Amino acid sequence: EGYEVMEQYDEIIELIALKEAKFGSKGVLLKRAHIYLTQDKYEEAQEVFGKIPDDERSSLEYYILEGELAIYNEDFATAEMAYMLAMIESPDDEMIVDKLVNISMDQDKYEKAAEYLEQLMLLNPDFPTAKARLAFLRFEIGTKEPFDEIMSQFSDNELRALLTLLSSQDIDYSGYDRDKMLIRLNEARENRVLFKNIKY
Description:
Blueprint: H1 2-5, H2 9-23, H3 28-38, H4 42-49, H5 60-72, H6 76-89, H7 94-106, H8 110-123, H9 130-141, H10 144-151, H11 156-166, H12 178-199
Helix pairs in contact: 2-3, 3-4, 3-5, 4-5, 5-6, 6-7, 7-8, 8-9, 9-10, 10-12, 11-12
């Protein structure tokens, strides 16, 4: 791991080859594919990944590798399945849940993405951007109660920032109290729902 941090990938590949020569190939292909992936050498990673024996295809590391390669290939259904299997292996891993949020978004599965964000916030209420992303999703989905629920978790300053982001007009919200900001945010949400209904 220290080598990986220092990005000395060639040395890692050599060490993996030495390990393979001395102890056999069990687990070696998975490690080699992971190193290639870390180097953004997707074709090499894909080639090695395809050679991983069947009896080594049910580990957390394998599922993550499969998911990352599927994301690279824009095969989001496979990526979703791989990361769901990874989550079964490691249910409290925030990065896995966050990947499932992004994969769901890539497939326009906004309600599923919102569920994963809620799960992420249970694991870590301070996970970077989770609350804001959930607010935007709830705004986009348009259902009042879940939107109000996430809004109740925002501080006044966070509400003000969100209102400024969602507003198409150049309005100074510094004088707005919490109730007035919530009214404006719900009006914006209702207008978004109306716009989507007219558009589609």
